[in-house]
Amino acid sequence: MAYFDKRYHPPGTAPGTLAGDDSGAATVHLMDYSPDRLAERADATVAECTPALHQDQTVTWVHVQGRPHPELLQEIGNAFGLHHLAMEDVLNRGQRAKVEDYGGQLFVVLASPCWHDSGEGVRLAIEQVSLFLGDHYVVSFAEGAEDPFEPVRQRLRGVVGRFRRAGADYLLYALVDLVVDQGFPALERLGDELEAVEDVVLDEADGRASARLHRLRAAALQLRRALWPQREATAYLSRDETALVHETTRLHLRDCHDHAVQMIEMLEAYREMATHLLDVQLTRLNHRLSESMRMLTIVATLFIPPTFIVGVYGMNFDPDASRWNMPELAWPFGYLFAWGVILMTIGLLFWWMRRRGL
Amino acid sequence: MAYFDKRYHPPGTAPGTLAGDDSGAATVHLMDYSPDRLAERADATVAECTPALHQDQTVTWVHVQGRPHPELLQEIGNAFGLHHLAMEDVLNRGQRAKVEDYGGQLFVVLASPCWHDSGEGVRLAIEQVSLFLGDHYVVSFAEGAEDPFEPVRQRLRGVVGRFRRAGADYLLYALVDLVVDQGFPALERLGDELEAVEDVVLDEADGRASARLHRLRAAALQLRRALWPQREATAYLSRDETALVHETTRLHLRDCHDHAVQMIEMLEAYREMATHLLDVQLTRLNHRLSESMRMLTIVATLFIPPTFIVGVYGMNFDPDASRWNMPELAWPFGYLFAWGVILMTIGLLFWWMRRRGL
Amino acid sequence: MAYFDKRYHPPGTAPGTLAGDDSGAATVHLMDYSPDRLAERADATVAECTPALHQDQTVTWVHVQGRPHPELLQEIGNAFGLHHLAMEDVLNRGQRAKVEDYGGQLFVVLASPCWHDSGEGVRLAIEQVSLFLGDHYVVSFAEGAEDPFEPVRQRLRGVVGRFRRAGADYLLYALVDLVVDQGFPALERLGDELEAVEDVVLDEADGRASARLHRLRAAALQLRRALWPQREATAYLSRDETALVHETTRLHLRDCHDHAVQMIEMLEAYREMATHLLDVQLTRLNHRLSESMRMLTIVATLFIPPTFIVGVYGMNFDPDASRWNMPELAWPFGYLFAWGVILMTIGLLFWWMRRRGL
Amino acid sequence: MAYFDKRYHPPGTAPGTLAGDDSGAATVHLMDYSPDRLAERADATVAECTPALHQDQTVTWVHVQGRPHPELLQEIGNAFGLHHLAMEDVLNRGQRAKVEDYGGQLFVVLASPCWHDSGEGVRLAIEQVSLFLGDHYVVSFAEGAEDPFEPVRQRLRGVVGRFRRAGADYLLYALVDLVVDQGFPALERLGDELEAVEDVVLDEADGRASARLHRLRAAALQLRRALWPQREATAYLSRDETALVHETTRLHLRDCHDHAVQMIEMLEAYREMATHLLDVQLTRLNHRLSESMRMLTIVATLFIPPTFIVGVYGMNFDPDASRWNMPELAWPFGYLFAWGVILMTIGLLFWWMRRRGL
Amino acid sequence: MAYFDKRYHPPGTAPGTLAGDDSGAATVHLMDYSPDRLAERADATVAECTPALHQDQTVTWVHVQGRPHPELLQEIGNAFGLHHLAMEDVLNRGQRAKVEDYGGQLFVVLASPCWHDSGEGVRLAIEQVSLFLGDHYVVSFAEGAEDPFEPVRQRLRGVVGRFRRAGADYLLYALVDLVVDQGFPALERLGDELEAVEDVVLDEADGRASARLHRLRAAALQLRRALWPQREATAYLSRDETALVHETTRLHLRDCHDHAVQMIEMLEAYREMATHLLDVQLTRLNHRLSESMRMLTIVATLFIPPTFIVGVYGMNFDPDASRWNMPELAWPFGYLFAWGVILMTIGLLFWWMRRRGL
């Protein structure tokens, strides 16, 4: 698993060069709405999108799902007047969340985290979402296979309310809000995984838990890289720095920023928790080691010296050769004497161990 | 135990959607006072609260205890003109402490920590308190089962003093002060628990202390997430950014902010102490391990080689087969010779151990 | 030992409530001076202090030593017009250092650290000093048993110089300077203790050092909580934010702030040193463990297998039962053959150990 | 390997002293272009560069590859009016990235990291790139053996486009962009190396991995020292603080700054990952130690006491000497009794071990 | 070795008190220069310095080497109008680097680090340098035995150039530059020492390295305390906050500030490296421990059970007493049977060890 999925052009490439090896598996979805009417077209072509753009009374939303072919991107860029540096950022995924103001056009990059369950455990993926806000249009790009913006379309198709009456900036808010809020389930999952590891660590102090914990820490690091810049981006949008976003939308974006800040605090708490867990595991391993060591020390200390003593009386020196050769063997109470020596030795060792605080 | 209790709507939900699975076990308490008179009604309905609101000369305090049903919340929202984003925050508990200014209405979120003694040890819970301040009314929401604001009511019911004469902003201050000060007993408890663990760690270096310490660290992390944003919120209130809070109340809110800052410093000190304790425990475990190891090494090093020697003279080679077969067994001083070899070996090993600094 | 000595009122108490269980063992000391004359009275009553206050030409200094009874405090508060929130802070000791400006009156809280030698080792205590500065008076409160301000009185009683000619703000400076500078001997002591522990750790790697180190770290944490806010407080005083402090006194307070900053840097360095020492101790314990392990491994590896071999030839199988039963025992060179096997085994094990890098 | 390659003059040397032991292996490359024409000269002399400088309609780019001799540098300095402090920084390599504004001339220092594969593993080298921007000229210095700016020359030699039409500031941007973007492959390599170590750590917990990890951490530290100041430098260039850089170029430099920020975030994540890995390795080593300890403890605890028992019945006390001497040996069921004692002992030890949680 | 060499007056001393136990081993060096002429006098008296001061056309530089006696300092203070708080700082060495502006006089404190090779290893000393800048004079104080400013005097005595023509502020710059740049060799030495320890740690994992590393970390901490405030001081000087320093000198001081910043970055990198090294050492010690443990476990596990088995057949139960007493001893293939049991046991243990991953 690569730590981070970041694409870049070779150093020295001209700025705004659009190049990529991804054959364009992208689809274009067009939505054009005003309080009165709503037109929608799945699998549209760029040519079909252009007329909608020229109608000032409607909000035009062009969504590109998947990784667009450089040529498709260039075509869209020409139609909507996207800046070449921004288009380069759409292709070179792994960008950090940001807001760029290209005079009259706002370019927003966001990161959408989601967990994938694979055979060898869960894995976190960060997908880039790019949004362009113009006067009465929004162009959005989402990387993955599944279209994340379906709930927004449902709300647009529903009863005519605040959403349909509001401008393109409110659409931008709805998309940003959806992407930012995807952090909550991702964090919840992280928390669940951490608690599962915590149970293992506190109950068994299993060695494999450290590998699992390591993977969660890597995921938390990925999440951090995705969520921190999002905080800045939403802060930028909720401050009054651009004329494209209206006051009431800005209030909603402030709520969005609030969520981004909450997520970061939860994430930092999880990260700290993971570090704590590794410390606890190390301490528990040491404790277990210390315990088996103590048992070994007690047994070995009490029995190795007596084994030496009985070894002595197992020697085969010939008592007949001289009276100095193992006279104890022939003593009437030799055996009892040996047992006396053994028990006294064990007693002494026991006393010594206690005194040393074992 | 879930690390954090945070509710959120599924990403893509329309902003201001009020939805919740909590059947409304909430009660509404009304208090309406001026220097001259005081009206109070427990278990009120929203309809009963509205007339009080229209009287400009009195301060109206509506308190909702428990988790209100979305419909009840909507009703209160309509009566007092609460912002839909703020009402969403009341329902989605686990919000970070904050102050939002919705032009003419101040929305304050605070976190109230308390310890619960359960069977498996103490547990920290963070309850959300939400306050709305209008021109001459305060609407408050508290999550738990018990009404925390009874002491404030007692003071209102008592002698007519500064409190009854002051406006709604002073009531807000009294509520904020009470919630913020609940951090002190929570921190004191944390400190007591830490000291109890400290005694265990310094006296016995018990392995179970690490699990207990881990739980305290998790609680400290929870407290941190609750108390830090409170600092910002009280700072906001004590700065002159809103016309709703008067100068004299602001002086009192500065005192409140002061408490919030003190708590954070105490908390950070406790957190550091807990980290220190884990370090100390690891060191002590290592020390104990090192001590049992030394004892084992001394005993095994001194007795394993002599045991080999006595084993040699316990072999049964037939001295009659040739004169090379264990002639020592028949030496007149063979036994003493063997003891000599043994004692010399022990002496050498002892000298070697000393030299190696054991 | 409680980590921190912090008093607070139960949450919900009315602000400015003065309550305490300390029976008033406090004494009041009055000093009233101008360049021309100096009046001094120990164990004064509040009534005796009031006339001095009404003389504008003199500087009146009222010092309260010990923990004043709430009634005494209220009496002083009435005489000098002290703010009720400030008086609450005087009673609720354990406040963080701060400066509050109550329009026309400056309230300064400082922390004075000192070491106490008790039976079980040194212990750090933090005592609160509270100062009120008015137009031509200073009211000071110091917690401990001993009056810390005697050196300042000596200077006032001495030759008539800058001090006697300057106003109440210079007296405030002298008191602040004295309290702040008490950090230097406290830090010096901390440094001495740390060096003593360092000697133990580097020489013996004794396990008890970790408990001692832990107590020093706890003391450093206490000191930190006392000294950090002092930095802000002296910075506030040395900036020109209040009309009560004159330009020349401010220059002296800047010097005082400088000392506060120096102390913090020394303290942080000590804290880091203490952390280093624990790391070093852990490493040394591991090293010692590793060394005894090596010795044990060498001895056990070289002697356990030969002990098995000599055990084999100590078996009592009957060679007469068949020619397969231990024929070696009857070989003419059987004993030498056994020694050969033993020495070869030891040689092989020795070579194996070397190759494994032991 | 020296941690950092930093040159400095002996303290007390006059500022602007140009001295160095590097014999000037530097080559000068001249490029002079306008939309209409392009002149290029490799291995130019300073004299050949001067005429181009005096033509205001063209952009003159003088590139010095290698470490210039102080005399050559002085000559260039005189021709282009370079500040003596800036020239000193060109010679004293190991400067931190920065932008200095010498009124009418901008001096930019950047750091270009690259990995070298040597026999004993990979090694990171940081090369200094110095750029001077004047009204219509750029002077660049690059330290290494290979000219990094060839891709930029290719783009200049290609079709006449934005680049040829833009001024010297756009050339500066192109060079800065190239140098900054060289951080991406360097970081990618660091990530690859870390993943390789991760595999080793998680699979085998090999001890040599710690040395490898240490080298990667040292490299990450080097990278950090190179990349952090680059962030400030690019931020300075992309803010409108100097008249030398035009608005459109500034937009491109903002993109460049964006890359610098991204790199730092990637780097910090890698650094943290490396720290995690060392923690994991320590935990795994402890786990393995704990596991072998357990096995040893089980075997030794179960077999050492029985070995003592069989040793007892291997003693040679003479049963004929008295009836107290080892009567068991002559019991009809003595052998079975001994086995009974042995098995009971093993059983008891087994039960004891289980109870102690081994 | 005391961690820090900091002198302070007892708390409560009057400000500006000059007291010290250092008998004045200080010498005064006078230099008085203009573009036209240069007067120099070693071992001057204060009286000899005063006339030079009254000549406005020359720059007067009075340098005091060593620790001046309080009386000498007072005399100089009177002659040059030094502020009494500044003079106190000159005596109370161990001040943090700073710049104080006493209206018309600038007081600069700097720290000059140098390494001393003593018998028990290298040791870092921090010496305080104090500088006063007036309109056309500089008074400098340096603590050590050796005069550090000789190179500056050489430059003044040399050809008449920028230095002689510039004012007193340029002299101040030259002195500040020299003191600041002394950080480079000190850091280089620290780096060399660290690399030497690194070699030891990576090659041998010697336990003594941790004490050496500890001393280097203490030195790095000292350096940090010296260099960090220097950054602020040079930043202050290079900003246009005082009329005493001219624009061109300020440009040079900015260069000086640049060096201070570089040093801090190098230092922080070294400090981190030292921390890494301790981690690596701990890991390697654990690895070595784990390795010897494995060897011991393999040998003991394989040979302790067989030793028990051969012990069984070394028991002396009388086969004649009954047919239950060790019938195996008389079996024709008893010996081979015993070997079979032994080899099977070893095989089983080997298989068990493999399965447990040892």
Report on this model:
- The structure is a homopentamer of 358-residue chains.
- With 358 residues, chain A is an alpha+beta fold.
- Chain A folds into 2 domains: 258 residues, CorA soluble domain-like (Beta Polymerase, domain 2, 2-Layer Sandwich), CATH 3.30.460.20; 43 residues.
- The first copy, chain A, is 54% helix and 15% strand.
- Chain A has a 7-stranded mixed β-sheet, sandwiched between helices.
- In chain A, a hairpin with a 3-residue loop joins strand 6 and strand 7.
- In chain A, helix 6 runs parallel beside helix 9 and helix 7 runs parallel beside helix 9.
- Chains in contact: A-B, A-D, B-C, C-E, D-E.
- Chains A, B, C, D, E: Pfam families: CorA.
- Chains A, B, C, D, E: Keywords: Cell membrane, Ion transport, Magnesium, Membrane, Transmembrane, Transmembrane helix, Transport.
- Chains A, B, C, D, E: Its main location: membrane.
Question: Briefly, what is this?
Answer:
Chains A, B, C, D, E: It is a multi-pass membrane protein. The structure is a homopentamer of 358-residue chains. Chain A is α+β, with helices and mostly antiparallel strands and 358 residues long.
Write the SSE topology:
The structure is a homopentamer of 358-residue chains.
Chain A: E1 27-33, E2 38-41, H1 46-53, E3 59-65, H2 70-80, H3 84-91, E4 98-101, E5 106-118, E6 121-133, E7 137-142, H4 150-157, H5 162-165, H6 168-181, H7 183-204, H8 209-238, H9 247-312, H10 334-355
Parallel strand pairs in A: 3-7
Antiparallel strand pairs in A: 1-2, 1-3, 4-5, 5-6, 6-7
